[in-house]
Amino acid sequence: MVVTKEDLLAHSRYIRDTLVPRLAKGSNVVSGKSTFDLAPLRSALEELHKSPMTVEILSFSRIEKALQKIVEAQGRGWPPDIVSNAKDLIARWEESLGSLQRVKTDLWGLGGRLEGLAKPDKSLWKGHASLQTKAHSGAKIPETPDWQHEIKCNAGRAHQDGHSGFQVGDWWLNSAAACRDGIIDNPHSCVTSDEDVAYAITMTQHTETNESKDNSCSFTPHPNDPGAFKLMATINGEQRNPVRVLRSWRLHSSLAPIAGLRYDGLYRVTGYGVKLSQSPGTDKDVWRYTFRLRREHCQEPMEKALAHPSADQLDDWEDFKAGLTDASEAEMKDEGYEDLPAFGRASWIPQVAERTGRIESIDSGYFSPHPEGQADMKR
Hints:
Elements: H1 5-24, H2 39-50, H3 55-61, H4 63-72, H5 80-97, H6 122-137, H7 155-158, E1 171-172, H8 175-181, E2 191-193, E3 198-203, E4 208-209, E5 216-219, H9 227-236, E6 243-248, E7 261-278, E8 285-295, H10 302-306, H11 311-322, H12 329-332, H13 352-356, E9 361-369
Helix pairs in contact: 1-3, 1-4, 2-5, 4-5
């Protein structure tokens, strides 16, 4: 039996995402009541002893990290033969390849999560900090700052209804990578839309309310996001299709991923409310729209999305953050350069006042519920 790198990735995820957390809670994979099938893992470990290992296979599968977890458990809950095999394989690989801690994935290389995207540069952060200072002073900000890299977005795919070929739980390191793949059309905008209607919502840097696993929530995009008006078209217009919803690690929500950007499936916009509130950092009042969303039932459950990021995805997240250490934490804005907005489209000013409750709002009292019955219309 030939064990492929894809097989090893599956074994690695099973060990790190399923078995290790269970063991941490006191489970035992060899107890009489255990439901874990370790036969495939045993077979894979035996095959690994027969085949030479390469850095490419390790960087793809992360199997060495999974075996290290088994060794670190010091036999607690693991069968002795699996522990022994794990120790032998790690020692063998370190002898032939060197320290396994140096095995990293080339995020920007061929097949990497950031393939085709520009690497961050320290000079970008200095320029961004300078622009922030100018923004505070009221100086005019250029529409296309020098630090902003061109990102090629797959708008044709992004402007398609439904899942558009994506699966619940798909995960990206940042919004630029998601834009490159075509699930959204702009890494700096909350709403993906064309001239007529919205197709996707990226929940980031704001607060999601009433979130629950029973598939309903409310979300308020930035008041300057032009796509907010297109979301209303999914309620009042002829095209009442659901929209794709992605959640970012920067979203204030119990459903937000702990890292990166995750696709959580199709949601239907069922209504919206309007509030007049003060814009952060200014004396101007702006209209804020809060949209009510309900997750569609005929798709993969939310539990599949909540399983991401997986352990290997978190490995990439840590490497991604490490690549940004040339800039100070303040300039990197929580190391989230992917969320730096485009000036002229949405303000970069963080919503500190909203988070601390220092904004006084005036509720217009207007709420437009979805016409009864239409929320359940088939696509």
